[in-house]
Queue: 3 jobs
Job 1
Amino acid sequence: MIRPRPTLLAAALTAAALSGCALGPDYVRPAEQVGLPAAYTEQAALPTADTPALAGRWWSLFGDPQLDTLVDQALVSSPDARSAAARIEEGDALLRQVNAALLPQVDANAGVSRSRTILPNANPPSGLVRTTDKLGLSTSFELDIWGKLRRASEAARAQALGTRYASETVSLSLAASVTQAYLNLRAIDAQLLAVRDSVSSQARSTQLARIRFDSGYVSQLDVQQAEGALATYTAAQLQLEKSRALAENLIGLLVGQPGLRIAAGDLARLPVPPVPPTGLPSALLEGRPDVRKAETDLIAANAKIGVAKAALFPSITLTGSYGRESRELSDLFSPAAMVWSVGAGLTQPIFEGGRLRAQVDQISAQQKQSLESYRKTVQTAFREVNDALVAVRFNGEAEDAYSTALKAAQSALKLAQARYDSGYSPFLEVLSAQRTANDATVAWVQNRQARLSSSVDLFKALGGGWQASAQLAGGAQQPR
């Protein structure tokens, strides 16, 4: 038996010893290059609290079982959610494909060939027909001396992890969209409740104006004003009913259930989620899936530099085969039919016009772009949290003023109606009070919706809600 030369074995062992190194920079999180303050600007004057635990099902903080059901359905049945799940499967498959290069490739070979060779010295010239049967195994394996394969695996692993974070981003955005659409639906319900009360009240006022006109107590002007106001409120009711149907259609699309119908509810009964703890640390941004996705993109780009640099250095490939070959099928498994080979090959780029170095520069530039994208993502997230904190605070402070205005407008409407019924004031005074009360109701509803929506924006900006030690803040009931 022919044995491999010692030089071949020595080369293989040397290559294996060198395979522990990996070209390219090792990843280090660029925390100091992002430049964020320790706490958010909106709460900079407040003491820094311990980092609160984020709640995954943050929408449950609104205490509405209908909303919980809708969000859960959207996260399962929405086409966006299913597409994101498919991208995770794609990323996992790519990682397995890249990692397969770290293992030897073994192929089975089997074949039969028949050939004819001319024998020129024969008289007369004739041909020799030969049949060859082959059966064996062959393998090839590239030694990862410079870490090219390991860096490629590192990049693929980061990309596969990034698909999961991208899926979480989709889920977070989807839950926020469903919640915002649901709050909009409940705001329409609240306005519908108010305008229906106005229609009912105006219908009674119109009937009273006609009776008083028939009795000669008022002029035709009061009747026409009352009928005009009734028609206006009826048209407003129809517009709100149309808006509600469109809002239902939007929610049905988000949850993957076209034609969905949702029973009426009351925005005022939704509790206001707990206020964020004082001194929220900016480290909470690390939990945002889009920030994590941006970091995995940076990790992948960093690893690809090592892949590009390894292409500048020699690559060593080990090959081998083992099998049997014979001219007769019956002799294929005889001892004399055994064949084998062991080899090693080295490839070193000599001249390629600077293509490989240009590729290194290209990948390095892409890594710089990924770094800037990561920095922008973190800074944008910081701004979104600050904006949401501002909205939460000011919308909460404004609700007391809107509640006071609504109570005053409703009291004025009752007084104006009583004065008109007693004949002390014209009907125009009732119309003005009714319009003011409706405007105050709409303003209160819109501010309550904005207050709840700003909480949704804050949950989304932080990547989740916080665990509050106290009970949920009770929702202030709409003044009646």
Job 2
Amino acid sequence: MKKNANLPALIFMFALLIVWQCIAMGMNAAYILPSPTQVLVRLWELRKPLFTAHLPATMLCTGVGLAISIALGLLLAIVMDASPSAEKMLYPLIVASQTIPTTALAPLFVLWFGYTIWSKVLVTVLITFFPIAMTVFDGFRSAKTDMVDMLKTFGAGKKEIFLKLKIPAALPYFFSALKMAIPMSIIGAAIGEWLGAQAGLGYFSRRMMTQLDGAGVFAPIVLLSVVAMIAVGIVSWLEKKIITWRSSL
């Protein structure tokens, strides 16, 4: 059964690719909608600049932005859990930060930091820290009140309750947030590169668009999707190795 667990997803993906191929062949306009085979061929033709220059630039931006987002999100979640006053003060601001269109702020980041990595990192952090902070905060709040009361009766302080109860309770939430944050961090880096950069897959896709190269536009997008799926798969594997008690429930 385990060997066939991914079979429905593979069949569905294969069916979508066939539909895409048929529609693209029917349109016969590769500059608007290239077929999957045309995208793969173009990806192979552009493999040198994509893999040696643009993919490393995007992954560096994604990695730095994701690391900052994890640190910031965890810090905000811990502070809000520790202090109801901090929760009332920070929660609305965190939510409000997600109402600002990223495409409106990204050009400002470029003006402030130029075409350096930090303009793209800020876009990534702005998109990514929110699900980490909110999800981990919900994880802390999921710790059962009766368990907290029981630990208090045994003389446990806030530090012991946090380490022995709240962190284990929040771990599944953290991994769920991380699986959401990884694709979002890649999207954030690509958006930042699209609006202002000298290298990166987002920049490369925009450059191909100016040349009306539809397959060239899709090639870095496909590469980004594959990288995101691999990264999420690694996180899922780590989750199963670390949260061993979930499989026993």
Job 3
Amino acid sequence: MKQLKTEIIAVGTELLLGQIANTNAQWLSQQLASVGINVYHHLVVGDNLQRVETVFRQAHTRSDVVIVTGGLGPTDDDLTREAFQAMSSMDIEEHSPSMEKITAFFEKRGSTMTPNNRKQARVFRGATVLNNKTGMAPGMIVSFEGRTWVFLPGVPREMKNLASESVFPYLQGLLGEKQIIKSMVLKFVGIGESQLEHELYDLIQKQDNPTIAPLAQDSGVVIRLTARHSSEIEADKLLDVTKQKVEERLSSYMLGINEQTIEQQIMELLQSTGKNVSAAESLTGGMFADKLVSIPGASDTFKGSIVCYATNVKRDVLGVSQEVMKKNGTVSQACAEQMAEKVSNLLDSSYGISFTGVAGPRVVENQQPGTVFVSIYDRENNRHETREYHLLGDRDTVRHRATLKGLEFLYLYIKSTVE
């Protein structure tokens, strides 16, 4: 299959300053993948003529197709045309239909058109001009030295319309045949990225179609499988075959695919076993409960959470003994275990899970920031399981990661009792 090495360049200082997000590049990459076109580079460059020209020259040396968004407006800092002309020496001319459209726009509004608006109708001689139905500046497709350059407005609505109606069909014509790129994300818990990569080393080394890419994320480790084929059905078959090979080796760590979350899997496990869970949250302050109640039907399996941040709430509401807290501290395995057991009994749940620890920035009870205890109480078996974690990050990060660790711990515990 023919390949088109494609690059996306966004022009605009506002993107570099973080004033707006570069959603154009994200959307373009997603859409191009769906028609079998690989994007190899994303670049953002500010409104500076020399820097834009430098980026254009670099792209021209390595990509078959370069898609540029932004810099086609009427103001002095809209420099996309000027930068490409400096590189290519191509002539620029006024496109009469676009100029007529711009003039008509101002006449209809009854306002005076400033001279700089004529700039928006300027196009490269010989370019395929793309009619902008939702804005003023037209898009352009330009062939130069064996490369295809696509120029699109930076306004997302205008860019998407031009790309969908004109650019994608044009690029598919260059391919000669339709290609489909499909991806599948496999999610894992209880295994690190390095161990996962070790278990799949030979598959990764031999990868071709589909490709296998391990990725580490806050919520766990994932593998992205990406297949390419002219047929969507065949691309799906390629993904399924590789998924089965991965599952054969890592089934005990497999969580789900694509959009499936660990919260959903916990709820499904609880529903299938007719059990439920409640939480006692000190460190996490309700974050764990928030994760579970975001799942439709959570009331069937989640009894509730007691946020027991203060010591007296642990004692007076949960019923954690003063002796335990005095002897071991509130940031301890003993306190975590009592919290889990007490909330299970109070809320009449099959499992109780508790969170206590030090989010930071100060040391508490001689425990360093990031020290976290998560405990599970299995009421049916009168059994405690507790884990101690030492998490890195600022206060919010520690709380967030503690919540994720608790979800992972609970999922693996319930799963082990079912198997």
